[in-house]
Amino acid sequence: MGRGLFISLEGGEGSGKSTQAKRLKEWLESQGQCVLLTREPGGTPLAEQLRQVIFEPAAALDAVTESLLFQAARTHHTTHKILPALAEGQVVITDRYLDSTRVYQGVLGEKSVAWVDELHRLTAGDVWPDMTLLLDIPAEIGLPRAKSRGDATRFEAMDIEAHEKIRQGFLQLAAAEPKRFVMIDASKSLDEVSAQMQAAVQKLLERGDA
Ligand SMILES: Nc1ncnc2c1ncn2[C@@H]1O[C@H](COP(=O)(O)OP(=O)(O)OP(=O)(O)O)[C@@H](O)[C@H]1O
Ligand SMILES: [Mg+2]
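Above: inputs. Below: predicted complex with magnesium ion.
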């Protein structure tokens, strides 16, 4: 049986990942695809428990422990949910994946992107998305959107400058891998963003074996 397609959605807080992940799933299903929508950190009961630990405001995690917790969640999620779905030929959409750790703990944090990548190689079978949709949005637009939801985690309690640094981190990763990353202008309307994403995924379907 053919292998499915693995799509990750990345971008800063309030860029619209969770909103668009659901829309993309619905669109793919309307095209007859079997879709698994999942998220990180999380995606399995154990990884969701780790998510709570990671986002606990009083956790006081050092950089290495934090990275290891993210990667423990990712390994469990990859092994027990993503890979089995791909083996069945499903399209897997994940709301954040490795690139979020590469930006937050690698580009911006105390560890390097190479360190994050090596950890992933050692622990999660070096699984990479076939396509990463980067929902790019200026901090001035994205931050108010994130705050408007009123459920800020410790990662979201940040200012415009921090938000813009995250944006630049994602742009840096995208520039290094122009084949895997597809830039999405997330400042547009919901429908316009969905259309950009559908066009990208349509191309992936045409060249993939799903
Ligand atoms: N294109 C858009 N235009 C206007 N509002 C939007 C758009 N996309 C998303 N929103 C709104 O912005 C808020 C944040 O969107 P969403 O939760 O999807 O972002 P996110 O990328 O998942 O954020 P986080 O990384 O914090 O989970 C929501 O209230 C959503 O309804
Ligand atoms: Mg979200």
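DSSP finds eight helices and five strands in the chain.
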